[in-house]
């Protein structure tokens, strides 16, 4: 081997060694284009948003221990408490007064004391009642004060309390005992001995204050599928008002259009051959109506959304920041998601944005269906927001957050991964223009949105709650309805109340009405309500006086009182309606935010209904009132079981007070009428079943604030659009190498039920 060959081989060896070293040094590292970028700095000082933070499990436990040791009465764990016991029903954050919070956030004042609101059921007293205590300061409680009378004007009667899980269990035991009195009928009608039938509650529970009498609808229960589509035609009315469970009674029985005094009477009619029986086959496995089991093997994966350089939002405790947005988030176990101190570019836009209530009102020719008016806050919109399924409920790479609550037990519970946060590329421009005249260019911006989502499963329905924050300073609030429809047994003129969706199943018509509170602070707390509408004026043509022209013009108006600002549901509303600041923008117009409602609501309950005042918020698609600390919510968890004497009646909030240059709240109702049809089986789809509203800047800025976005794209005919330096879209190809390492799929949502 000559020297030249040796040198060549030595050079190749050195080059190989150098390459291997480079590979080893970079192994495990992402390409430079994939490395996470530093996130923007938070606008708020560290920890300020914690003034709104939900209670931690440790704080909840401290409150329970304090109450157990300082009330001087025996407290039974609510998970096993009977009506004649005392128990802690729930513990949640006591949100501080707005004035205190603003002194702390904006004025350098002291941090408000951290307190809890505890709801207790006192059944073991001479006068049973529901009492609410504020307990503080946390984390080490030292005081409690009864706020019930201050909040509600008197004690809360005991019959108004929500039904507990233990109460439902005791009712179910009573129903099972009663079903044993009709064995021949059950075998004939349902191929059942009663033990495989399940009950579905209705509400409200009676016809007048003090009643606690509930219709329960019975269904075939088949493992692995929703029973809601398999009614057997049998419904029972249970009176459960007495504090002694042994005194509860089954008052009436309904079957296939007829009413009976008892299951014994029903059995006698059957044995005597005087009862028309519809003989149902017991549902079997996948053949059951409404099965969600896949019918085809998995196909190829669909598109996957990911962030090449990591999330562009930041989450710290209860605080989220994203491209100028700053949001404090939380979850009320009863009313659901709530947000505070929403700022854009450092300016507060919304002080509070919170879900208030979800109403589902049904029609049917069966007693259970026709009497159902669910107020879901009483059941627990936040409490029943369970774990989200990664990759389906939210993008696989979203950030998932646990939520904690204490309700019907002395031990805090955790719904892990029950709230998700992600940046969503809608596949749509936020704005764009292609210029084909004079100069040739293209400019645009992708519509990327921060989404905060949680999903509540309330018996049969699943509500997807979305809160979206756009790059132009707009807030979008939207709810999608999915899950199973509720149904009645089809008999008689049942199709007057819905559509037949199965052999003996009537999909019952119903409406969904959702209520929100929006405490807007547009350029400060002092706002007014302004409207703009379109009219036509007929004028002589200025350049041709013998002709006329129909010229549209704006009719502007400032509404002065609450009565003027209460817009009835489904009535025409001004096309533009804005919360206006007294301060102008650069062009002389009041800095404003516009409320734009997207809704297809059904008809509100007639005002002469005995229970209408309990849902009187539903009279209005929008009502604007002066903000008052003593009017924190539009409803109450106690309204469900006593709607005839509502604990909170929203109609009383509207009393013609002036709303000019005041701290104002917008109360917004959205909803839709749902007439179930064949395509609602197995589930109602989200397509077309969503409603909501926007909060949009209207002369708040001097121009669209999204012009400052670093995602903006612009190139002209004189540029090379393929050059990364001229066009950021040309830089995306390397990002394909940045696909993240996905965590293994995990779901623990069945473990905490």
Automatic annotation (TrEMBL):
Enzyme superclass (EC): oxidoreductase
Residue positions of the active site: 376, 461
Cellular component aspect of the GO annotation: plasma membrane
InterPro entries named among the record's database cross-references: Cu_Am_Ox_Cu-bd, Cu_Am_ox_TPQ-bd, Cu_amine_oxidase, Cu_amine_oxidase_C, Cu_amine_oxidase_C_sf, Cu_amine_oxidase_N-reg, Cu_amine_oxidase_N2, Cu_amine_oxidase_N3
Any one biological process term the GO annotation gives: amine metabolic process
Molecular function terms from GO: copper ion binding; primary methylamine oxidase activity; quinone binding
2',4',5'-topaquinone PTM sites in chain numbering: 461
Residues annotated as domain Copper amine oxidase N2-terminal: 71-143
Region (Disordered): 288-308
Essential cofactor(s): Cu cation
PTM notes: Topaquinone (TPQ) is generated by copper-dependent autoxidation of a specific tyrosyl residue.
Domain Copper amine oxidase catalytic: from-to ranges: 305-706
EC numbers, comma separated: 1.4.3.-
Superkingdom to which the source organism belongs: Eukaryota
Residues of the Copper amine oxidase N3-terminal domain: 161-258
Keyword Oxidoreductase: yes
UniProt cofactor note: Contains 1 topaquinone per subunit.
Keywords: Copper, Metal-binding, Oxidoreductase, TPQ
Similarity annotation: Belongs to the copper/topaquinone oxidase family.
Protein name: Amine oxidase
Name of encoding gene: Aoc3
């Amino acid at each position: 081997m000559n020297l030249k060959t040796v040198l060549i081989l030595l050079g190749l060896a050195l080059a190989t060694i150098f390459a291997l070293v480079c590979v080893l040094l970079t192994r495990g590292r992402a390409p430079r284009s994939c490395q996470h970028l530093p996130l923007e700095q938070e606008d708020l000082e560290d920890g300020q948003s914690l003034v709104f933070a939900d209670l931690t499990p440790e704080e909840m436990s401290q409150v329970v221990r304090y109450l157990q040791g300082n009330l001087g009465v025996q407290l039974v764990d609510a998970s096993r408490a009977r009506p004649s016991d005392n128990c802690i029903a729930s513990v949640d954050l006591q949100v501080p007064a707005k004035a205190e919070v603003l002194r702390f956030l904006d004025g350098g004042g002291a941090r408000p004391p951290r307190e809890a609101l505890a709801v207790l059921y006192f059944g073991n007293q001479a006068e049973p009642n529901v009492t609410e205590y504020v307990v503080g300061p946390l984390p080490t409680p030292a005081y409690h004060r009864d706020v019930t009378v201050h909040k509600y004007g008197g004690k809360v009667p005991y019959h108004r309390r929500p039904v507990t899980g233990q109460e439902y269990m005791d009712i179910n035991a009573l129903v099972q005992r009663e079903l044993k009195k009709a064995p021949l009928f059950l075998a004939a009608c349902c191929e059942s001995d009663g033990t495989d039938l399940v009950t579905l509650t209705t509400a409200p529970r009676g016809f007048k204050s003090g009643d606690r009498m509930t219709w329960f609808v019975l269904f075939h229960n088949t493992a692995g599928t929703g029973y809601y589509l398999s009614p057997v035609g049998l419904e029972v009315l249970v009176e459960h008002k007495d504090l002694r469970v042994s005194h509860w009674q089954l008052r009436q029985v309904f079957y296939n259009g007829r009413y009976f005094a008892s299951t014994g009477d029903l059995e006698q009619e059957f044995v005597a051959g005087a009862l028309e029986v519809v003989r149902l086959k017991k549902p079997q496995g996948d053949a059951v109506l409404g099965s969600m089991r896949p019918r085809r093997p998995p196909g190829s994966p669909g598109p996957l959304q990911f962030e090449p350089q990591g999330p562009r939002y930041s989450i710290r405790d209860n605080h989220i920041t994203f491209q100028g947005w700053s949001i404090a988030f939380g979850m009320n176990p009863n009313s659901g998601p709530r947000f505070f101190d929403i700022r854009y570019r450092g300016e507060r836009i919304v002080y509070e944005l919170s879900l208030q209530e979800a109403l589902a009102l049904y029609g049917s020719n069966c007693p259970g269906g026709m009497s159902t008016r669910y107020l879901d806050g009483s059941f627990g919109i936040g409490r029943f927001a369970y774990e989200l399924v990664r990759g389906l409920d939210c993008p696989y790479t979203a950030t998932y957050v646990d939520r904690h609550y204490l309700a019907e037990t002395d031990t805090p519970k955790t719904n892990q991964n029950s709230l998700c946060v992600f940046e969503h590329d809608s596949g749509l421009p936020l704005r764009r223009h292609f210029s084909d005249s004079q100069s040739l260019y293209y400019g645009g911006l992708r519509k990327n949105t921060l989404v905060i989502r949680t999903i509540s499963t309330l018996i049969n329905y699943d509500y997807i709650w979305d809160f979206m924050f756009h790059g132009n300073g707009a807030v979008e609030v939207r709810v999608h309805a999915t899950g199973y429809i509720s149904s009645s047994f089809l008999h008689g003129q049942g199709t007057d109340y819905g559509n037949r969706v199965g052999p003996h199943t009537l999909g019952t018509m119903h409406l969904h009405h959702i209520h929100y509170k929006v405490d807007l602070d547009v350029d400060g707390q002092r706002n007014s309500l302004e409207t703009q509408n379109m009219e036509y004026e007929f004028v002589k043509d200025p350049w041709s006086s013998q002709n006329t022209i129909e010229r549209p013009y704006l009719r502007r108006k400032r509404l002065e009182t609450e009565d003027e600002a209460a817009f009835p549901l489904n009535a025409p509303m001004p096309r533009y309606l804005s919360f206006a600041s007294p301060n102008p923008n650069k062009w002389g117009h009041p800095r404003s935010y516009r409320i734009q409602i997207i809704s297809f609501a059904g008809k509100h309950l007639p005002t002469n209904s005995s229970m209408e005042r309990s849902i009187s918020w539903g009279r209005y698609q929008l009502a604007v009132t002066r903000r008052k600390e003593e009017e924190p919510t539009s409803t109450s968890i106690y309204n469900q079981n006593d709607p005839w004497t509502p604990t909170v009646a929203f109609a009383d909030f509207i009393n013609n007070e002036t709303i000019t240059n005041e701290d104002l709240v917008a109360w917004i109702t959205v909803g839709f009428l749902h007439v179930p049809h064949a395509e609602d089986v197995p589930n109602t789809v989200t397509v077309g079943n969503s409603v909501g509203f926007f909060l949009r800047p209207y002369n708040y800025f001097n121009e669209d604030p999204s012009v400052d976005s670093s995602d903006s794209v612009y190139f002209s005919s004189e540029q090379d659009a393929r050059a990364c330096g001229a066009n950021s879209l040309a830089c995306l190809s390397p990002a394909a190498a940045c696909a993240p390492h996905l965590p293994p799929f995990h779901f623990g949502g069945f473990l905490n039920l």
